[in-house]
Amino acid sequence: MSRNRCTRIRPAALLVVLAILAAAGGCASYQVGYPSLFRPDVRTVHVPVFESDSFRRNLGERLTEAVVKEIESRTPYKVVGSTDADSILSGRVVAERKRAVAENRNDDVRDIETDMTVEVRWTSRRGEMLMQRSSMPLGPLNVTISESSQFFPEAGQSLEVAQQHVIDQLAREIVGQMEVWW
First and final CA of the chain: distance in angstroms? Predict the structure, then answer.
């Protein structure tokens, strides 16, 4: 009786081992972890100061600083000077607005929204577009990204803090767009 039991287990165990080996062989080139999300042919990125069409001071500089920090912390890329870079990530703040969302009966502003729109372009040293919004190549187009944030002046919040929140959101979104499409 124990002999029949052993012969039944052996073919089942053999099938399990064969299934594991077949599955492992099919995933031999699969990568795991954050480096697999980014282009292996790019190691360095040059980020010139983002231009700004806004009359508010230092928006381009603040956004550039946030993008550089985000690239350094979330990607395998190293930010370097233009002569050594494999790629260039450039951008322009094309719109920046502030508007009242809610007022009280005395026309005092209770809630203000600020938003920013940025055009971003990531190209290789050869001029190839590296960042695309869709899976279909559309030619040399800039990627447009917008973010907004609300703040409440009565609660002691300021436009500067709300803008920094928008800038941080934009930096995360820009670096997220540097990931490889699946």
Answer: 53
